[in-house]
Amino acid sequence: AQAVPGALLPVDAGDGAVPSLLLRQDEQLELLERLDFVVRNVVELRKEVEELRNSLQHLAVEIVGEVRTHLEETQRMTRRRKFTFSRERSDSTGSSSIYFTASSGNANTDDGESEGGYSTANAESDYDRESERESEDDVSCDTVRTVRRDSLDLVPEDESPLLLDSSLEEGLGQLLEQADRLHSGDERDKREGFQLLLNNKLAYAEQQEFLWRLARAHSDMWELTEDADERRSYAIGGKEELELALQKWDQSAECHQWFAILCGQVSEYESIPKRIQAGYIFKEHIDKAIALKPQDPQLYYLLGRWCYQVAHLGWLEKRTVSALFEVPPTATVQDALQNFLRVEELSPGFSKAGRVYIAKCYRDLGNASAAVLWMDLASELPGNTKEVTLSREQNQILPLCSA
């Protein structure tokens, strides 16, 4: 689900918008800052509660795992120690306090009994039982120390991290393939894919390919969810994931692409200045993604939509941009047309919506015959092409798409 900041679109200034225009610019900014502060604190509180819940669940799993590991290791070491003691007794003949016969004091090695019927080789003294208990206690303490060391990741460099990394890498490859397949599916598949990635976040949170797919899944959930608060939460969650990812992997085209898209989705709930600022951010990251991946038609499609929006800014948006920003965004219908034609050049039939935009651009430029031609070409494509079709949610952010 692709979204471009709705800030750069014409907004129907109804009766409710008139009083806000009567405020001075500094009063508008102060009011916006206060509202942003309240919203930001609510979002942070919700995030902290969710993190606390996840931490408690993870802690419970770790405790159960450590206890089970401790018990299994203790039992295994205990059986090993008992076997060792038994073998040592059968080989020894010099301990008169343990091995004796009633008549002569010589050990009988035939059947384990003396001539007088007393137990010999298998007899144990109180000292033996006490020694064995002490040995088991030592093993138990060693096991506890080992488990604690493992839980704190204090593993020496010469142990098994290479095997563990190899196993994780293989599991990551399978996970990413499954996530891509679910992302291309229906609503149920996308929800399943989102939950799948969440369940594996602890294991792969430091992997670039995992993080941008997790952010993409947040975008999918934004599209599928009806409740406004939940949608905003999904968009903000995905954006925050990529903010961390871009600090490490600034050369990832996918990270830049989905960060731009999520900025657009978040901007649906922002004030006009914030939405316009999101437009700058959107353009910046789409440009970076194109520089890193110049053969991706989807990136040119997104840039074309952004140019088309800027070229059709309404009077209110233009006045707001001029008042708040020194350098307003600039783009023409011709710029938008060149990007949409680039999409067709890289992947003919990539997007039905892209062909509709080409027709709109030619119409705006006064070329009616080309506009009719491209509308006919668009009608030849099915409604669901490689590029995700215009959904109800995208039309809310981009009303020009349905014009």
From TrEMBL:
Q: Which InterPro entries match?
A: RMD1-3_a_helical_rpt, TPR-like_helical_dom_sf
Quick check: keyword Lipid biosynthesis in the entry?
A: no
The reply to whether Transmembrane figures as a keyword in the UniProt entry is yes
Q: Could you give a GO molecular-function term held by this entry?
A: microtubule binding
**Compartment(s) of residence:** Cytoplasm, Cytoskeleton, Spindle pole; Mitochondrion outer membrane; Nucleus
Biased composition regions of type Polar residues, renumbered to the chain: 98-109
Q: What kind of membrane protein is this, topologically?
A: Single-pass membrane protein
Question: Taxonomically, which superkingdom?
Answer: Eukaryota
Q: Which residues form a coiled coil?
A: 35-62
The name under which this protein is listed is Regulator of microtubule dynamics protein 3
Organism in which the protein naturally occurs = Brachypodius melanocephalos (black-headed bulbul)
